[in-house]
Structure formats: C-alpha cells, structure tokens
Amino acid sequence: QVQLVESGGGLVQAGGSLRLSCLASGRSINTYAMRWFRQAPGKEREFVAGISWNGASTSYADSVKGRFTISRDNAKNTVYLQINSLKPEDTAVYYCQCQNYWGQGTQVTVSS
To answer: What are the pLDDT digits (tens) for 57-71?
Structure first.
C-alpha cells in the first residue's frame, strides 16, 4: 500500500510560481509511473502531468505545456510539480496519483 501526501500549494498572484511535492510512504515508488491531476470547483478531475518510473519520459496536458514541469527523486520517494506563469484558471486542488492510490490534495489558488 502507498500513502501519498501532497504539499506546496497556496495563494499566489497570476504570473507567480509554486512547487508542489508528493511524498510517498509505505513502499518505494521507484518502479511506478506517477501522475498529477487537478480538480477545479464544479469540474471533473483532469490529468495534468505524468512521469515514467525513471523520469525519462514525461507527458503534459495541453493546457499546461511549457508552464508546468514534473520531476521525481526516487531516492526521496518524492515527485514534484513545478508550476510557473500561473493563471487564474489553474486554481484547483492538485492531486498526486500512483497506481490506484491518491493523496488528499493540495489547494492552489491563483488571484488575478
């Protein structure tokens, strides 16, 4: 079983940056692909970014390409999401996913 804890969210102005972290415990995640999702109020949860087990391959939703960067440190059992040039439409709860495990999410709020 894997426990995932996201952190790093907050309130920022448009154009700002945040670095989200997802710390895994319970077992090593170094053989698993990891993903970030987000859910805005009144909307369905959507895929944001994914990374392969060794970090060699990444993928992004079109809406965040060029602004978001996913990375991982397997030695720390942690996955990161660097989010730059934030827009008000990026406001959402951001979730980390591993296999069928989810964290509790971290809130990102972008003011215009």
So the answer is: 999 999 999 999 999
